[in-house]
Structures are given as C-alpha cells and as structure tokens.
C-alpha cells in the first residue's frame, strides 16, 4: 500500500486523514498543532516533525491548509516542500485558494517533475467525516486517474473541472452561488415573517415552488425551521462566515483577472464583511439571517 504524507490536520484535514487510514494507506502526518498529530498517531498514523519529514519517502502528499499564503509558503521557495520531493511524487492540494496561486504552485511543481492537482472540496466537516466530499479537480486527467484511489477514500463525487487552477475556479463559482442563495433566502424569510407568515410554512412553500434552492432544502437560516441546521443551534458548527467571506474574496479576485461582471458576488462579499465586523465570523454562514431581523 502506498505511503501518503498528510499536512494540515484542521477541521477538514483531520477527518480526511482518518478516512485514508481506514482505507489502509500508510500515513505520515504533520500539523503546526502537535495535539492533532498526536491524535492521529494514536490511531495508527506515523507522526512527523515537519512537513519535509512527513514527505520523506512518501508516494503522495495531501495538503489541507487555510489559505493561499499558507500553501505558497509551504511549497514554494528554495527551502519549500517542492524542492524536497522526489520527481514523480503525486501532490493533491485540497485547500481552497486563489486560482492564480494554484497555477503558481502547479508551475513550480511541473518544473521539478512533480505531478500536482488542485483539488478543493465541498461538503463541509460532515462530508469530510463521512468520506462523502465532492472534489473539484484542476490538472491533467492522466494524473487524476493515478490519484483516484486516494480521492475515493475521502470523497464520493470526483470531478475533473479542467486544466491547472480549474478546480479552484469551480469552487469559488459554487460558493458564490451558495452565498447569494443563502442571503436571498434569509432576506425572504425575514420579509415573510415580518408580514405575518409562519416561518415553517413559508419555508415549505418556497422549497416546493420556483424559489426552491439548496439552502431551503438542507440549511434553512431561520432558527427552528430545521432541527439539525446550524440556525437551530445558535449558528454553531457548519461552515464559518469568515471562510465564506474568504471564498467570496477569491471569487472577486478571479473576476478581476478576467474583468468579469459579478455584482451579486460583490454584494454578498460586502454583507459577509459586515457580519465579520459584527464579530460573527466564527458563526455558521447562515448567521447572515441576523442582518435582516432585529
Ligand atoms: P483549519 O484552520 O481548521 O485547518 C487548517 C490546518 O492547517 C490547521 O490545523 C493549521 O494548524 C494547519 N497549518 C497551517 N499552516 C501549516 C503549515 N505550514 N504546516 C502544517 N500545518 C499547517 O481549516 P479547515 O476548516 O480544515 O479548512 C481547510 C481548507 O479547506 C480551507 O482552505 C477551507 O477554506 C477549506 N474548506 C473548509 C470547509 C469547512 O467546512 N471547514 C469546507 C470546504 C473547504
């Protein structure tokens, strides 16, 4: 069985790494937080003392880091991880980062004979734990074929989005739609309730009508409408508003590069920044509901 170096054991990385262990891969793990490394070591992974130590002799590397600067900081430069990897190593970079940043890392990898895919995910921490993530992948199809068993141990839907950086483009497009739908749903819920409707009745009518969308199906932002939604648990768990703001910012950066017109995405970003200013960045992104109620 091949050996995988897994770097970045946060909310997403830890459960993803756990699924690789369950699938029988040999795992070497590293995170700046020692407690996360120790936790996986207890479950059978080999603890590494640095990213380079984890990657030593590994066939593949998986990274799940917060943002572009962490990914560029880890891989690039004379002492970066790419310079420590042997040619032919497969790198699956799963963080959500700027498409431009992903292309920069792709280029540096190709110059060293390293096969890299940008492979951001959708599905949240629940999908990471259940092994049902969606992967949106940018890079060569032949490299994806080689990496498929690793992706399949962590996810259910594995999409080839296109060439280098395409996975990141798909991810920011998807999250922009999600944010806009969430805001539109929250606005309509507040409007209906202010005009005398029962929130559960309104939610069900819209869900089954032409306004129906993913947030009405799975994630209603009005507290009490869906028992298991973050809105009914004080907007805890789920996907943090500050991560949504980050992804909306990445969408705006991508729009800037191509001079694309994205007014809905721009407005969504402004509303999420407002939430961050209100100290709600660590709440689930459906907390946007509170902008429309007293
Ligand atoms: P997180 O902050 O919980 O985890 C990131 C981990 O990376 C941390 O444990 C941190 O210590 C570690 N780290 C940072 N720099 C490092 C370095 N140089 N070497 C080793 N470890 C390092 O973040 P997360 O929620 O797991 O998200 C990871 C990525 O996945 C982000 O890009 C995020 O946008 C994306 N994502 C998150 C979700 C979600 O629901 N949380 C869903 C989809 C995508």
Automatic annotation (TrEMBL):
GO biological process, one term: L-valine catabolic process
Catalytic reaction list: 3-hydroxy-2-methylpropanoate + NAD(+) = 2-methyl-3-oxopropanoate + NADH + H(+)
Entry's EC annotation: 1.1.1.31
Domain 6-phosphogluconate dehydrogenase NADP-binding: 3-162
Residues annotated as the enzyme's active site: 171
Keywords noted in UniProt: Branched-chain amino acid catabolism, NAD, Oxidoreductase
GO molecular function, one term: NAD binding
Gene3D superfamilies tied to this protein: N-(1-d-carboxylethyl)-l-norvaline Dehydrogenase, domain 2, NAD(P)-binding Rossmann-like Domain
InterPro entries linked: 3-OH-isobutyrate_DH-rel_CS (IPR002204), 6-PGluconate_DH-like_C_sf (IPR008927), 6PGD_dom2 (IPR013328), 6PGDH_NADP-bd (IPR006115), HIBADH (IPR011548), HIBADH-like_NADP-bd (IPR029154), HIBADH-related (IPR015815), NAD(P)-bd_dom_sf (IPR036291)
Signal peptide: none
A UniProt-annotated Pfam family: NAD_binding_11
Domain 3-hydroxyisobutyrate dehydrogenase-like NAD-binding as annotated: residue spans: 165-289
Protein family (similarity comment): Belongs to the HIBADH-related family.
This protein's name: 3-hydroxyisobutyrate dehydrogenase
